[in-house]
Every structure is written in structure tokens, then in C-alpha cells.
Amino acid sequence: VGQTAQAQGKKTTAARESRQWDETSFLEDLSRRHGADAAQVAAKTLAWARSCGLRLWWGKGGKDGSCFPMFDYQREQYWLVSLWTYGRCEVQFQMMASKPPFADEAKRLELLDRFNQIPGLNLPQDGIHRRPSFPLALLKDEPALNQFLGMLDWMIALIRETSRNAGANDDRSMQHDS
Fold this sequence. Notes:
Number of strands: 6
Helix content: 40-55%
Order of helices and strands: HHEEEEEHHEH
Strand content: 15-25%
Mean pLDDT: 90
């Protein structure tokens, strides 16, 4: 109410603006906005993701850049974490809840506990139903970053194990049906 047509037009145009982020633009913007520590954590996390064969999905935010290291396994897509140019890492609990092993609330609570073992990190217990975040710079010390990346390794191993066990159970049930 009270806005001129010109002001309303500017607002609508700004809401539709987007850009395709990539590693270079992401790290430059993150460094400019939150410093070298946050950018270095993101760069090391992206290098880890590439070394594990994860697919990097880049966002199209007009203001904030995002990157989602996606674990694609046996025709399924698994959400782990996301990195943002506003200097934070989001844990994708909400998206994990849709498929094993993290469809099990107890596994998400175990993962939450593992995250909270990183010094300075304190995600809330109800975070397992959302996408809680923490500052990337919290992982600037090598031991904390290694603990974080080790936890992501654990997540991937658990997904693989759960998927293998589900496949073995499917094989057994097909044998009984024959």
C-alpha cells in the first residue's frame, strides 16, 4: 500500500533476479563477506566432496550463493549439508528424513550428537526436523574440519551399508517368494 508503480516494479524485478553460482564465484563472495577462514573451510569441503565423487549442485540465488554436495547412490540422491555465501553450513536433517538410514529419528539424533561433538557447535535437538546451521569459520582449525569431514564420511558409509542391507533383504524376500 502506498508504493508507486515504479517502486513495485523494482521490487518484482529484484525478487526474480538470480545467478548461477560456481566454485569461483562462490568462494570469492564467501571470502569477501566472511573472510579467508570461511572460504578456506568451504574450499577444503568442496575438495573433499570431489575426492569422494560427490556431485556439487550450485544454487541460483540472486543474493546468496549455495552449494550442496550431493551423494548419488543406487539411483537415489542423498542430502548431507549445504554451504552458503552468508558464511554458514546447513545440516540437511529435514531432507534426510525421507529415506534410510536417516528416516530413523534415532539415526538423526546420533548424527546430531556427532555434530555437537565438534568444539563450539551446539545444534538444538529439534534441529533433526529442520536444517540447522552453524558458522563455517567454526571449522577453521584442522582438527575440527577433519572431525566434520570424517562425520560426512561416516554418513556416506552408513548410507551405503543401509542400502546394501536393504538390497540383501530384497534378494532374500524374492527367494522366499519363488
